[in-house]
Design goal:
Distance between the termini: 114 Å
Strand content: under 5%
Structural class: mainly alpha
Order of helices and strands: HHHEEHHHEEH
Largest sheet: 2 strands, antiparallel
Number of strands: 4
Amino acid sequence: MSRSMGSVPTPEHAAIVGAPAKPHGFVGRGGAAERVSFAACGETNDTQLATTRQEAFSGERQRKAKWRERMRDNPYKDLPPLERRPDGSLYRMTPAQRKQAASLIRRECCCCEDGNCIVLDDGDTCTCPQTVSFSVCCKWFRWAVLPLDGTLEAEIFRDKDLKRCAVCGGVFVPKSNRAKYCPGCAARVHRRQKTESERKRRSAVDS
């Protein structure tokens, strides 16, 4: 009785030659067994990947929902209104200024994510209006982001009264007639003044 090399003996052939018989369900150590194993691994990896993506998407949606809820109670609504020109129109930027403003927004604005405004995200992404507008139309940009670049702010509102900072010499838009420092220097000066005041107070108590 001829039989190909490496094949599994049938029960009848095993009985003749005295070889141990393998069960009919045995598929061997290679070939189909490996394919079954690889298929199972592929299904497991696909399932894990789908689960990971679903968790990431769900986490992103929850984060955006929490941010929108936070923004509803944010001081954004209490910010001063946007300044307007004497004719009632909004202040406008030149193309170069708009480019600088868009770069500043993408770098510094906490509401901007990949060029989209998450405050205006109602399930569909919404491009930040301020990055594509030549008008200063966003209060958050005007009062929370633009002051980070005093030079750009001064250039946009150049028809307003400008002052030169007593510390760094930079030009800035004063919020009152008594302002002597740009926003960045003002924070450092006030912090230093507070530290000196606390030191004097402790010295007076110790003596």
